[in-house]
Specification:
Blueprint: E1 3-8, H1 16-31, E2 35-40, H2 46-57, H3 63-70, H4 72-87, E3 92-95, E4 102-104, E5 113-116, H5 119-128, E6 131-135, E7 138-141, E8 146-149, H6 155-165, E9 170-175, E10 196-198, H7 199-207, H8 215-224, E11 228-232, E12 249-252, E13 265-280, H9 286-296, E14 304-308, E15 315-322, H10 326-335, H11 337-340, E16 344-357, H12 367-377, E17 384-388, E18 391-397, H13 401-411
Parallel strand pairs: 1-2, 1-9, 2-6, 3-6, 9-11, 10-12
Antiparallel strand pairs: 4-5, 7-8, 11-12, 13-15, 13-16, 14-15, 16-18, 17-18
Helix pairs in contact: 1-4, 6-8, 7-8, 12-13
Bound molecules: aspartic acid (ASP) and magnesium ion.
Length: 417
């Protein structure tokens, strides 16, 4: 007997039939004797619709009211799942974020969880074997008493945070894929599902473009050492052997992974934009003059490359920002042109970032060098490079993304046989 959190995403609760399927998954675990807290997303597409409604109502809407609106999708699915479970003879009760409460910061639309009081849920496990059905994505700010939401994809984070709060043995994330793959299987059909992946590697994969989990949920899992199991919600509950190991990927601490490859996976994102400032005077304070205003504007700068200009006297500086911030970044730079002092601004939005991730890189030299050679043999030009202990990224023309990902996937022996 154990304690489990089961999280179901939007496609898994997209309609009443699917909610019934979810309920059967829950029943399976209850029948196996586990205490269960379920965390649900809104029906797929619902949150987008609610966000659009807010924009439609007013482009500059109040963030507190935005949260009041967009949190409603999860209220519906948590109530519906509780109804279906009760209909199956299972004790169940829905919980909104404020009812638990899940206390968060007041950063509306991207609030951070501060504290969760799991006492009541805990007690009900003991007293009446009651399943808690918790609305993901939402919380409450204790100072203002207003509903908050955790940012898009936030119900993953709700699930892991609740798992930590009730000291669950594991947090199962049921989703429309059956685990974490070495890269996106739609781009590389030979991508393999990983049986296990370390928190650190998963954190990089998620941060660098893999969309399986919200980045913060992985961070939380790592901090609390909470094993997170990513598995498919489309497997028939009846077909699952409660004592066997179902297909999926366990995200866990590095020590639990026996056999590890140097490279774990490859992520990519096409949401990048490149800005290059040409012929900047090479003197102290220039980088501060460029990146200070960008930071003040809350723009995340990612890759930075500085090199000597064609004239040999000045310097060129290239950096990347999220494509969604591109216009603001450009405006910020051009309005500081006088202070920075550059001759020309070049930019490109049709670029993508391909990243190779593996904690094994810590103990292996030359991993990145191999990639540079392989890409050059394919005539793929690298515009910028960044490296860290366990990953490196290259910025390339977006048109070559798929080719680059496939090339690197084969190069590092990740293709399945
Ligand atoms: N429903 C929210 C969203 O679509 C939260 C989630 O699904 O994780 O972003
Ligand atoms: Mg999701």
């Amino acid at each position: 007997m154990g304690r489990l959190v089961m999280k179901f995403g939007g496609t898994s609760v997209a309609n009443i039939d699917r909610i019934r399927n979810v309920a059967r998954h829950v029943k399976r675990e209850v029948d196996a004797g586990h205490d269960v807290a379920v965390v649900v997303s809104a029906m797929s597409g619902k949150t987008n619709e609610l966000v659009d409604w807010c924009r439609d109502a007013s482009p500059l809407h109040d963030a507190r009211e935005y949260d009041a609106v967009v949190a409603s999708g999860e209220q519906v699915t948590s109530g519906l799942l509780a109804i279906v479970l009760q209909g199956m003879g299972i004790q169940a009760r829905s919980w909104q974020g404020w009812q638990i409460p899940i206390k968060t910061s007041d950063a509306h639309a991207s609030a951070r969880i501060l504290e969760i009081d799991g006492t009541e849920i805990f007690n009900r496990f003991g007293d009446r074997k009651e399943v808690a059905v918790i609305a993901g994505f939402q919380g409450i700010n204790p100072q203002t008493n207003r509903i908050t939401t955790l940012g898009r994809g936030g119900s993953d984070t709700s699930a892991v945070a609740i798992a930590a709060a009730i000291r669950a043995d594991r947090c199962d994330i049921y989703t429309d894929v059956d685990g974490v793959y070495t890269t996106d299987p739609r781009v590389v059909p030979k991508a393999r599902r990983l049986d296990k992946i370390a928190f650190e590697d998963m954190l990089e994969l998620a941060s660098l473009g893999a969309k399986v989990l919200q980045v913060r949920s992985v961070e939380l899992g790592m901090v609390h050492n909470m094993p997170v199991f990513v598995r498919s919600s489309f497997d028939k509950p009846e077909d699952i052997d409660p004592h066997g190991t179902p297909p999926g990927t366990l995200i866990c601490s590095e020590e639990e992974i026996m056999e590890s490859h140097v490279v774990t996976g490859i992520a990519f994102t096409k949401d990048e934009a490149q800005i290059s400032l040409r012929q900047i005077e090479d003197k102290p304070g220039v980088a501060a003059a460029i990146f200070g205003p960008l930071a003040d504007a809350n723009i995340n700068v990612d890759m930075i490359v500085q090199n000597v200009s064609e004239d040999g006297k000045t310097t060129d500086l290239t950096f990347t920002v999220p494509a969604s911030d591109y216009n603001r970044a450009r405006d910020t730079i051009t309005s500081s042109k006088g202070k920075i002092g550059y001759a020309r601004l070049d930019s490109a939005t049709d670029v993508s970032k391909v990243s190779v991730i593996g904690s094994g890189m810590r103990s292996h030299a030359g991993v990145a060098a191999k990639a540079f050679k392989a890409l050059s043999e394919r005539n793929i030009n690298i515009r910028a490079i960044t490296t860290s202990e366990i990953k490196f990224s290259v910025l390339i023309d977006a048109a070559y993304t798929e080719l680059a990902v496939r090339t690197l996937h084969t190069l590092y022996g990740l293709d399945q046989a």
